[in-house]
Structures are given as C-alpha cells and as structure tokens.
Design a protein that fits this description.
Layout lengths: L1 H6 L3 H12 L3 H8 L1 H7 L6 H11 L2 H12 L6 H22 L10 H17 L3 H5 L7 H22 L6 E6 L5 E6 L7 H24 L1 H4 L18 H9 L12 H21 L1 H5 L4 H24 L5 H24 L7 H28 L3 H24 L14
Antiparallel strand pairs: 1-2
Helix pairs in contact: 2-10, 2-11, 3-8, 3-10, 3-11, 5-8, 5-14, 5-19, 6-8, 7-8, 7-11, 10-16, 13-18, 14-17, 14-18, 14-19, 16-18, 17-18, 18-19
Length: about 425
C-alpha cells in the first residue's frame, strides 16, 4: 500500500506543500498560545485577549479587498505574485512583532504588538482566498498534504509553547533597584526561552513557508506536478474563512446525506458556535484561567490549540452527517461554555479545581471544532457554503465585539494582580 501511495506522488512536493500550508494560520495561533506570558507584561493585562480578538476580526478586510481588486482590475496580479507578496508581508510583520511586541503607547496599549498582530492577521485571513485556489493548480493527491500543513499551523506553535514552558505564578521577593534601594516586588520565574525568541521562531517558520512556496513555483520537479493554469475563482471564496475552506475540501469524499438538512438550523448552529469559539470565549480566557495560576492558563491555551486541528482531522475521516447529533453536540458545547463563562465571571475568585478548567477548555474547543467542520460539510451538500462562510464571519465578529465591550467598557470581568505591600 505504501509503495502504491508513493508511486502516485513526489514526496518532495508533499513536504513543500505541508510547509507551505503551515504558514496559513501559524502567526495568529502562535500569538494566542503565547498569551500566558504576554498578559504579564502588556499594559492591558488580562484584557489583552479581547483586544487581540477585535484586531483579528478587523483583518478580515484583507480577503474582501483582494476580492474587490480581482473584480475591478482588468489585469489583477497573478496568484504567484500575490502569494509571494503575502508571505513576505508575513515575514516582515513577524520580525516587527519580535522586535516591537513590548512597545507601548502612553503605557496603556501594546502598540507594537497590536499593529504587528493586525498585519499578521491580514496575512492569515487573506491566505484563505489564495492558498486553496493555488492548490487547485496541483494534482489532487497533494490536497491532503496541504490540509495536514494547515492543521499543523496550530499544532506546531502549541508544541513550541509547551517546550517554552510558563514562568509560574508571581511571588513577592526583595528586589534591588538601580539606585541601591531594596523593595519588595512580585517576581515571576523565567520560561525556558523568552517571548522574543518565540516570535523569532514564528518568523523562521514563515521564512521556511516562503521558501517552500518559491520551490513549488519554480522547482522543475514541482512544476511537473501542476495541472495547468487555474481558472478564475469566484468571489465567494473571499468570505469563507480558512476553516470553512478546509471543510469544503474535507467533505469531497463524504457520501450524500441520507436526509435533507434544515439550512436555517445549520446556519443558526454555525452562528452560535463561531460567536462563542472564535469571538467570545478567547476574549475572556485570561479571566477564566488566570485565577488558577499561569500553569493552568498555559495548559488551557496550548492543549486547546492542539485539540482543534486534531478534531478537524477526525471530522475529515469521520464526518458527521446527522443533523440531530450536531444539535446535541452544540447543546453540550453551549453548556460547557456556560461553565467557562461562570469561571470568568467569578474571577478573581476560584470556582473549582484548576484541572477542571483545563479539561473544560480542551473539550469545548474540540467539540466546537468538530461541529464547525461538520456543519460546513452539510452546508456544502445543500449548496450553501457561501452562506455558511458569511455566518461564520458574522458570528466571530459579533462575539469579539460583544466581549470587548463587556470586558473594557462594562468591566464585567475582574482580574487581580499580586500586591506585595504590607
């Protein structure tokens, strides 16, 4: 079987495609798993995730502008030039983040981090409408390799974050200032490598993806695996995010559903799930986890980031074709989200043991990831993937906006900081 598998493909091209796919969302996934360290230094403190969630949603203007340019320009840039430019922007933005993530504006906002995250989000969001259409130019056998790479865009930074470790909870210690005065201040331990080094790692991955794409484009061995020039794709891909595009491809081999689906129900489920998983819950994860310690926050973020692509692959091999099962899983996800919300509202007090917090975040993220893949597949079967993409973006943006207001304007969630005063 392995011999037959290798006979129909070029392994080097598979490797290049995987490395190319890693760049799709590795930057934003990397920033998210680094939050347990970032919130300790950012002036926004525990509210930093809500600012990042809004920033990521604003970057969805990227695919919209790309779609408009393709529609308005008589001679739009080729896919090769567009992707190369996009990846170069990603490399530059990654370097900017490594150098300026600690720069603040009036000691109130993480100016360097937020600007860098915006441009990285612009790259990641726009990759959704560029990378998969480019893969249509290669033979079909390489599509799964791209999907593996896209899944690894969440897995790789999570593994790096686990290797980095977390600095631990701050404790009061005597600290000698530059003028010789000794004061008592909260001090945290050091991770195995610092935040700048982690961001340099993300930049190295972006450079590797850029080189892999250039090799796919110009290496003679890779060029022989192309089918020819791709026909113009429709603008509908401009509003379908990376998860939905993954879903539409992953459902190609799925059998037709035995019953007709209720499109309003599917779109309602997708709206609700994306509201929670893409917008609302990430904005309050610090309030839910940090009362239990940095280690709990660290494990919740990294293990959740690893669970998402694993569940997406599960849906690839075991797609859900029963609408009732999707509804049951959605109800379970909403209930577990309610538990997470309760822990955030209770902050800075602890509601339960920290291990339950980690378990809740991992299970909730895994269930929602499986639901999004399954719903998108069902919507594809009824010819409504465009509507699914619109609802996905709308739900994600609405969740981010609502939680941003609740966190930063209503002050519904409270954090705490170690005080060493007598």
């Amino acid at each position: 079987m392995l011999k037959e598998f290798l006979r129909n493909r070029v392994v080097l091209v598979d490797l290049l495609v995987v490395l190319f796919g890693i760049s799709s969302w590795i930057s934003i996934n990397g920033v998210w798993v680094e939050l347990p360290l970032l919130v300790q230094h950012a002036p926004e403190g525990w509210a930093l995730p809500s600012y990042l969630a809004i920033t990521v949603q604003l970057a969805n203007i990227g695919p919209i502008l790309y779609g408009l340019l393709r529609s308005c320009l008589s001679h739009p840039p080729s896919q090769s030039i567009s992707i190369t430019t996009l990846l170069i922007v990603g490399v530059v933005a990654s370097l900017s983040m490594a150098l300026s993530w600690h720069i603040t504006w009036q000691d109130k906002h993480s100016l360097g981090l937020l600007i860098s995250v915006f441009f990285l989000s612009l790259v990641d969001c726009t990759s959704s409408v560029l990378f998969l259409p480019y893969m249509a130019m290669l033979r079909q056998v390489y599509l799964n390799s791209y999907l593996v790479g896209e899944g690894m865009s969440g897995f790789v930074p999570a593994i790096a974050a686990l290797a980095q470790g977390v600095s631990g909870n701050p404790v009061c210690q005597n600290v000698t200032l530059d003028n010789g005065t000794t004061v008592v201040q909260p001090v945290s331990g050091d991770p195995r490598f610092n935040t700048s080094a982690f961001f340099y790692f993300l930049m190295a991955m972006m450079i590797l993806s850029l080189l892999s794409f250039l090799m796919l484009e110009y290496l003679p061995t890779a060029r022989t695996e192309k089918l020819g020039r791709q026909s113009n794709s429709s603008f509908t891909t401009a509003v379908v995010d990376h998860q939905d595009m993954f879903d539409s491809q992953s459902q190609e081999a799925a059998p037709p559903p035995p019953t007709r689906y209720s499109l309003p129900l599917l779109l309602t489920v997708q709206l609700m799930v994306c509201f929670l998983s893409n917008g609302a819950l990430p904005s309050i994860q610090s309030y839910s986890c940090l009362p239990y310690g940095n280690t709990v926050y660290h494990l919740s973020v990294t293990l959740n980031a690893m669970a998402n692509p694993l569940m997406a692959f599960l849906a690839f091999f075991l797609p859900c074709v029963r609408q009732r099962l999707v509804a049951i899983l959605t109800l379970f996800g909403v209930l577990s989200s309610g538990f997470i919300l309760a822990t955030a509202l209770e902050s800075p007090n602890m509601l339960t043991d920290g291990s339950w917090i980690v378990l809740a975040w991992v299970i909730t993220g895994a269930v929602f990831s499986y639901i999004k893949v399954s719903v998108a597949g069902m919507c594809r079967e009824v010819g409504s993937l465009f509507s699914c993409g619109v609802v996905t973006q709308a739900g994600s943006a609405l969740g981010a906006v609502v939680m941003f207001l609740l966190v930063n304007q209503v002050d519904l969630f409270q954090g705490y900081y170690v005080s060493c005063s007598n």
